[in-house]
Amino acid sequence: MPRPTVAHIDLEALRHNYRLAQELAGSASAMAVIKADGYGHGIRAVARALADDVRCFAVACLEEALAVRDEGLEQTVVLLQGVHSEQDMVTCACLGFELVVHSDYQLDWVLNSTERVPVWVKVNSGMNRLGYRPSELPVVMGRLAEAGCVPKGFLTHFASADEFDSPATEGQTEAFRGGVAPWPELLLSVGNSAAHFRAGQPLFDWSRPGIMLYGASPMADRNATELGLKPVMTLESELIAVRTLQPGDSVGYGQTWTAERPVRMGIVAIGYGDGYPRHAGTDTPAWTNGNRIRLIGRVSMDMLAVDLTDAPSAQAGDKVELWGCHVPIDEVARHAGTIGYELLTGVTARVPRRYHD
């Protein structure tokens, strides 16, 4: 029998979340972001599941774009980091990929190429990672025009859209709008997941929903249920041992948790070797037999301990949900001092994904 740890993927929940993103985008079209192996859900399965709804996918790199084509899908695929080698320009031209250009060396590759690949120009509106500042756009556009290359559009990325009270997103929007104003005929793309939930936020022609597609909240102070999102991944394992600890008994490495009374404890077959966060310590929620329970002690590589006080009938062999429909991933992330993005993309390859419609 295989080890009982598994990640169940609800493809209908994925489609629900995409359709919500498209509804919130209004007149803009929603470009589904499926980078990082579909945020840990499996890029091939995610792309197939969304194929009937999505006209354009966004990925980070060429390898991810190739995975979409390997599934026989013909949707437009945008490489958000562009290519990392000049030789890849030919592949992109042959397979119909669109490139984001964020630096002069990539611009040189585009201009030197005998192949004409559709490009988006990345605008640095204030995040200060990649892209051209608005003041640099006339030079970039001039070089493209001299070579007879008309870009498809401009895009930018927001730094603080998850914070409702932050003025940064409005400032970035205006910087972007002003910078691209001389080229009104080109398409514009802004709007990560969080931007979809900001009242009055313009999303222009293309939005780019990512984490919201997978059912985690993109907002700092609102949970996924409040936003109408459905969890896509349920991370599940089993109890492989149940025993009673006596007062004074400690559990796990470092003996960081000690029983003050008799406690029924369960051991679950999952750990940081599976991608469950090591820093999710005592009091992190889990769920079994219709009851919420809590972790105790430190997470090990292949197992963790739970307090079964609130699940008195639980026995070895019972299923345990680590996150999913009953335990929001964002709640687990808060206990671990991280975000849902990291947890989803961190589930390791030894955890099989099982897909359900």
UniProtKB/TrEMBL annotation:
Keywords: Isomerase, Pyridoxal phosphate. Pathway: Amino-acid biosynthesis; D-alanine biosynthesis; D-alanine from L-alanine: step 1/1. Substrate binds at residues 129, 301. The active site is at residues 35, 253. GO terms for molecular function: alanine racemase activity; pyridoxal phosphate binding. Residues 232-356 form the Alanine racemase C-terminal domain. SMART domains: Ala_racemase_C. Gene3D superfamilies: Alanine racemase (3.20.20.10), Lyase, Ornithine Decarboxylase, Chain A, domain 1 (2.40.37.10). Its EC number is 5.1.1.1. The keyword Isomerase applies. PANTHER family: ALANINE RACEMASE, ALANINE RACEMASE, CATABOLIC-RELATED. The modification N6-(pyridoxal phosphate)lysine is found at residue 35. This is Alanine racemase. It is an enzyme of class 5 (isomerase). Belongs to the alanine racemase family. InterPro entries: Ala_racemase, Ala_racemase/Decarboxylase_C, Ala_racemase_C, Ala_racemase_N, Ala_racemase_pyridoxalP-BS, PLP-binding_barrel. It catalyses: L-alanine = D-alanine. Its cofactor is pyridoxal 5'-phosphate. Catalyzes the interconversion of L-alanine and D-alanine. May also act on other amino acids. GO terms for cellular component: cytosol. The keyword Isomerase applies. One of its GO terms (biological process) is D-alanine biosynthetic process.
